[in-house]
Specification:
13 strands; Rossmann fold; alpha/beta; 5-stranded parallel beta sheet; 2 domains
Length: 422
């Protein structure tokens, strides 16, 4: 599907200038970030600071996957170079490092910039400079706006969709008589998540709606409020560190409840790392989370990712961040393959909007010219005996008040050892 064109100033050329212009068309200048042998992309991510513990391993997984692709000849004969810049989860620093990536490193695209407040600070800059802004690591609704931000594409399923699916699962599992409550981050993450819950459960269905700030060191007051209200089903719009802190606090208070978390705070191996391997199986038994990537222990993707992790990731633990990072890397490699033998920033966007890039989720990606939303739904995972796996059906829905419906389609399978070809 052709990329939308933007109006440009008209100019009158002399015959000589026109001839020179036409002659020049036979040898166009290469796209930024592309040489005969390499393609360079970059990212901003917290390698230091308060968010580093939860997210710094993602870029390592991306790098490992690119090493795997490069060892097999790259994409269209080009290896992928990946420049990682630490922003400390500080929007001011994000602006500095992203400008360095674009203006000094000359990247083809920004890949999986992490965080809502951080990436929002460079959203307009990247679009004004027509830099592909691919697979933002945040479930905010900001990234799906092809009219205003045609160069930006989401990757995480939006928080509203996740919340709607979790709410529907709770109802289906006998939660009609439950007391529903929520603990959410005090920003767009929490607000979008609550909107999704209310779309399914009803505007007055939440007995308690608690919030926390990322600078908080304790959530005893919030957990206490939920316990006092008799909450039986507690939804969590929390990052992994605060998920662990919340369920751990509840366990110490001898407060049993059903916990249902967003994918951003629902990875069992990461939570077990916070809680301790000896404590996690008991505390997290029955823990429910949404997800959209292949986490099942018997998944072909997981087998491939484990092999790559062992070969190229220097013994890093295999967690949800590993699966996430390698999924991002695979999806970029697939987009790059579809962008043609001589990729440009424009052809990369065209490839994504064509619908030919499926990704490796539990359902295909849903990109089009009219929607830069990633996946149209999520599956539900439950922890049983220390193992987190999908249960039942996946759900599809929109980010508004549309219905939540079962998904019965197929999931993309790995081919050619996960190295995309055209």
């Amino acid at each position: 599907m052709p990329l939308r064109t933007r109006p440009r100033p008209l100019a009158v050329l002399s015959a000589g200038a026109l001839a020179a212009t036409l002659a020049g068309c036979s040898t166009p200048e290469p796209s930024p970030g592309v040489t005969d042998d390499t393609v360079t992309v970059g990212t901003h991510t917290p390698l230091t600071g308060p968010a580093a513990a939860g997210y710094s391993s993602i870029s390592k997984a991306v790098s490992a996957y690119f090493d795997h692709v490069n060892a097999q000849g790259g994409i269209h004969g080009r290896t992928i170079e990946y420049v990682v810049k630490d922003d400390g989860y500080n929007p001011a620093t994000t602006q500095t490092v992203v400008r360095e990536l674009v203006q000094e490193d000359g990247v083809l695209a920004i890949l999986n910039g992490l965080g809502t407040p951080t990436h929002a600070s460079v959203l307009d800059y990247l679009n004004e400079n027509e830099v592909p802004d691919l697979f933002v690591a945040s479930g905010a609704l900001l990234w799906d706006d092809p009219e205003q931000h045609p160069w930006t594409f989401a990757f995480n399923v939006d928080y509203t969709t996740e919340a709607k699916a979790l709410a529907q699962y709770a109802l289906d599992e006998g939660g009609e008589d439950a007391v529903f409550c929520v603990l959410g981050q005090d920003d767009d993450y929490g607000e979008d998540f609550v909107a999704g819950l209310e779309a399914v459960l009803g505007a007055d269905a939440l007995a308690v709606s608690e919030t926390y700030a990322v600078s908080d060191q304790d959530v005893t007051a919030q957990v206490g409020a939920m316990q006092a209200a008799g909450c039986t089903h507690n939804f969590l719009a929390t990052v992994n560190g605060f998920t662990a802190r919340t369920v751990g606090t509840a366990a110490k208070m001898r407060y049993p409840a059903q916990w249902l978390a967003s994918s951003s705070g629902g990875d069992y191996p990461t939570l077990a790392g916070y809680l301790g391997e000896d404590v996690a199986p008991a505390v997290l038994e029955g823990f429910v989370s949404a997800n959209y990537l292949p986490f099942s222990p018997d998944s072909e993707w997981v087998a491939l990712f484990r092999e790559i992790n062992e070969t190229y990731n220097a013994g890093e633990p295999f967690t949800g961040n590993t699966v996430y990072g390698m999924s991002v890397a695979y999806t970029f490699a697939q987009a790059l393959a579809a962008a043609g033998e001589d990729p440009t920033r424009e052809s990369l966007v065209e490839a994504l909007e064509s619908g030919d890039v499926t990704g490796n989720g539990i359902m295909p990606l849903a990109y089009s010219a009219d929607s830069h939303r990633s996946f149209g739904g999520v599956g539900i995972t439950v922890v049983t005996g220390g193992v987190q796996d999908y249960v039942g059906t996946a759900f599809t829905t929109d980010a508004g008040d549309g219905p939540v419906e079962p998904y019965d389609g197929d999931a993309p399978a790995p081919e050619n050892q996960g190295v995309p070809t055209t």
